[in-house]
């Protein structure tokens, strides 16, 4: 367990615990041990995703802690402009608003020496804002807080395992990026691209028809969907399948690997 603020006697503790992409079996023993020492879990999800994702967290806690042996506090997520003129500035504003709400909840719901937990999908160090927000709370200096981090199975690992493939061929680099940044990938590092947060299926416009793609959604859950082939063969099928799944469930978590031949 990694501690970013080592002074445990300073006051409250916040454990940021990676729980993998959804399968309770992918929660590590280290994560289970950390969960067992948590007094209150804090949940901050948005919109239509909230009910379903809280339910998955509850299933994980039921399995590893036992029903009735944990406490959840739900925090209303602050609104966010999805089409801002300045994307980076809007994300900073949103993260600051999230930090304020989490800090308020930690103060109200934990004793001075209590241990709070946030269960993070995948790994807290891969395209997740929770650790950045926790550091912002520490930097403000208003709430003495020790922050502990537990790694989790990433969605990238779950994707390649589900498709039974390697992330890269021998000696080739791997680029992990987002759909918004996919078009900015420089030539020479685009052999193996793992892409997250791509609501627009950007690969349809940036990849060649002969590039191979391995796509997965709801990895590690009973709703898991897997598709693979060349972009020309399955690109539109992925886009339509994604749209249908999102409409059916109200939310979607997906990821893909696209590779040059």
Automatic annotation (TrEMBL):
Keyword line: Cobalamin biosynthesis, Methyltransferase, S-adenosyl-L-methionine, Transferase
Coiled-coil positions are none
Claim: Transferase is one of the keywords in the record = yes
InterPro entries, from UniProt? 4pyrrol_Mease, 4pyrrol_Methylase_sf, 4pyrrole_Mease_sub1, 4pyrrole_Mease_sub2, CobF
Which pathway does it take part in? Cofactor biosynthesis; adenosylcobalamin biosynthesis
Task: Please give the superkingdom of this protein's source.
Answer: Bacteria
| Tetrapyrrole methylase domain sequence ranges | 14-234
Q: What is this protein called?
A: Precorrin-6A synthase (Deacetylating)
The top of its lineage is: Bacteria, Bacillati, Actinomycetota, Actinomycetes, Mycobacteriales
Q: Which gene encodes it?
A: cobF
């Amino acid at each position: 367990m990694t501690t970013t603020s080592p002074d445990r006697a300073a006051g409250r503790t916040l454990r940021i615990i990676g729980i993998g992409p959804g399968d309770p079996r992918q929660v590590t023993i280290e994560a289970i041990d950390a969960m067992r020492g948590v007094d209150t879990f804090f949940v901050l999800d948005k919109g239509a995703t909230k009910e379903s994702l809280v339910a998955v967290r509850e299933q994980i806690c039921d399995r590893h802690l036992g029903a009735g042996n944990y406490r959840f506090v739900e925090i209303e997520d602050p609104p966010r402009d999805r089409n801002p003129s300045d994307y980076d500035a809007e994300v900073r504003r949103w993260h600051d608003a999230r930090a304020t709400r989490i800090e308020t909840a930690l103060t109200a719901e934990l004793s001075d020496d209590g241990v709070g937990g946030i269960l993070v999908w995948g790994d807290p160090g891969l395209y997740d804002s929770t650790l950045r927000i926790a550091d912002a709370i520490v930097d403000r200096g208003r709430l003495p807080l020790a922050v502990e981090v537990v790694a989790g199975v990433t969605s990238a690992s779950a994707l390649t395992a589900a498709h039974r493939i390697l992330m890269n061929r021998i000696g080739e680099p791997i680029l992990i990026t987002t759909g918004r940044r996919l078009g900015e990938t420089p030539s020479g590092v685009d052999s193996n691209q793992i892409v997250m947060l791509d609501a627009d299926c950007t690969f349809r416009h940036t990849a060649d028809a002969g590039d191979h793609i391995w796509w997965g959604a709801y990895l590690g859950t009973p709703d898991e969907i897997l598709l693979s082939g060349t972009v020309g063969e399955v690109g539109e099928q992925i886009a339509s399948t994604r749209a249908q799944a999102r409409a059916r469930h109200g939310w979607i978590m997906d990821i893909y690997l696209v590779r040059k031949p």
